[in-house]
Amino acid sequence: MTTTPAPAAPPVEAVDARVPWRRLVPLAAQHVLAMIAAPVSTVFLVAGTLKTSPGATASLLSAVLLLCGAGALLQSLGVWRIGGRLPFVMLPGGAATALFLQIAQEHGPATATGAALLAAALLLAVLPLYARVVRLFPPLVMGVTVLLIGVAMIRVAARLVTGPDGTGEPRAVLLAALTVAATVTAYVFLRGVWRQTSVLIGMAAGTALGVGTGLGSFAPAAGSGFALPVFLPFGTPRFDLLAALPLLVFALTTLAEITGQTVLNSETVGRKPAPERDVPRVARADALVSLTGALFGTSLMVTSAENIGIGRLTGVRSRFVTAGAGALLVLLGLAAPVSRALAGIPEAVVGGSALVVYAVIAVMGVEMLRRADLSGTGTGSLTAALALTAGLLPLLSPDLYAGFPGWARTILGSGVVAGTLTAVLLTALLGRLGRGSGTPSPPADPPARTGRDAPDRAGGRPSTV
Fold this sequence. Notes:
465 residues, 19 helices, 2 strands, globular
């Protein structure tokens, strides 16, 4: 009597393969090292701009690391229809943080918190209209938006060095310059994972030089043991739709970014891209983590695929590796000695790092514009020129709209909002008239993610913040 062999189990895809513990831990640690610069540098940009105390800075860093870990776990493992079940990590959005700080400086941190909550809620609300919304933000529009964010925040970073009056002490300017030099040196001469942490290395070198030369001081926050994030550190959120407009517009642009990153990550791990299924799942996780983060003082949290370079180098495509990285980030976020020590970094050092970070954002905008049709035969160059003019005017002439009503000052006085809305309206109008480049569609090439502060060292190209 012969028996029919049982049918073989379907092969497990590489992205779903389990990794033994002895390999999982070092691989996960490698991912943490590759992305740790982004949350650390972002927290110190916020702390330096809003003049938070060392203790509050340590608490904010703890919250951001915990959220990064929770986000990586959610995106990697997935729960119901939340999370892409791809090897993603989650980071504080650099461009979103820049807009958060802009709102906080103009309307107060409580209003910035309310804006982050509104933006995350908007992202959730528009997901049923995903296919229509994403078409509003082709590379031209996104390039204008990101370029304006970078330019606006370079001015904010400069104030971290010079002080609010714009007159900096020579030693503060020198310390910031040394920090920039150390960051550039690390990026140029180091390789692999060390190059990926060039921003962090620059901050460490700047702090050491400041303490050693007397140009700055290092004063860690007091305390020990485990650190827990503070709920609503900026007080009860204040909801102001006009003030929140920059973040609301940015929340919509992230749909185009999420689309590109999801397709890229799917192709890298060998899974057939299915953006209509996976993009809403990834966006839901982004929105839910951002809603939680806003309650603990952060701006929008965004999924990032920068760590995909490590997956390519190691050949390990398993989503359980990035889940392990998420678990390590949660533990790191609870370790008070780490966050409290980092809270003592001199303000001029933070300002120097911020100049590098936001300059990279501005260059990212230029790279996005290169993917748009700016030839003389179309209307793309005219659209970009007018949008950049609308966005740069309030930066170059801050009192230009002083005599306008409050609502108009809020919209026109924000370079990011004015420039982005101009780009969206002109793209739609000229396309409808048939003289543009046609109805924009989601970019075929994945747009650069605005979730990282450091350059992409694995690929040797500038990355996002």
